């Protein structure tokens, strides 16, 4: 069984709750799990561009905190560096504003974003998911 499969029942429960009711409906461990899982999924489905273009980008700063809490400082650093490519290191919460800001980034910023994607895959999504499963087991007692 792949490590992410251990989390699937949890993901199936918390994703609809987070989408319908917001992060505040989740425990701290559930929030961190949701944010890290969402970050990984977005990067695997289109890189940091996908993360920022989709609703998950709304939680960019919270995701950095979650990555750190889970014990993934190298991934937190990648996302922090991506955030820093935005003017004044500010990622708009509203999706249309965020997408406009992303589209208006200079070409060099998009190149840097691509390099961050490459670094993500060098670290490995498997490593991220293994760490997330271990975090969930420690923090939530494997519920």
Write a short abstract of this structure:
The protein has 143 residues and is mostly helical. The chain contains 8 helices and no strands.
Please provide a written account of the structure.
The longest helix has 19 residues, at about 5-20. The chain starts with a helix and ends with a helix. The chain is mainly alpha-helical. It has helices spanning about 5-20, 30-45, 45-55, 60-70, 75-85, 95-105, 105-125, 125-140. The chain is built from eight helices and no strands. About 75% of the residues lie in helices and about 0% in strands. It has one domain.
What is the fold's blueprint, element by element?
Layout: H1 3-21, H2 28-44, H3 47-53, H4 60-70, H5 73-83, H6 95-103, H7 107-123, H8 125-140
Helix pairs in contact: 1-2, 1-8, 2-3, 2-4, 2-8, 4-5, 5-7
Order of helices and strands: HHHHHHHH
CA-based shape: globular
Termini separation:
18 Å
| Radius of gyration based on Cα positions | 15 Å
Beta strand count: 0
Structural class: mainly alpha
Biggest β-sheet, characterized? Answer: none
Number of domains: 1
Strand portion, in percent? under 5%
Calculate the mean pLDDT score and round it.
Answer: 94
Quickly count the helices. Answer: 8
Percent range of helical residues: over 70%
User: Which stretches are poorly predicted, pLDDT < 50 over at least 5 residues?
Assistant: none
């Amino acid at each position: 069984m792949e490590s992410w499969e251990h989390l699937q029942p949890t993901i199936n429960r918390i994703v609809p709750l987070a989408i319908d009711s917001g992060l505040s409906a989740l425990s701290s461990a559930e929030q961190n799990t949701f944010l890290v899982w969402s970050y990984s999924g977005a990067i695997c489905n289109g890189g940091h561009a996908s993360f920022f273009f989709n609703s998950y980008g709304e939680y960019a700063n919270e995701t950095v905190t979650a990555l750190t809490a889970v014990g993934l400082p190298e991934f937190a650093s990648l996302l922090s560096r991506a955030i820093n490519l935005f003017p004044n290191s500010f990622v708009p919460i509203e999706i249309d504003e965020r997408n406009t800001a992303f589209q208006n980034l200079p070409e060099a910023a998009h190149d840097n974003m691509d390099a961050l994607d490459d670094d993500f895959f060098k670290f490995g999504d498997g490593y991220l998911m293994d760490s997330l499963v271990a975090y969930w087991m420690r923090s939530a007692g494997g519920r």
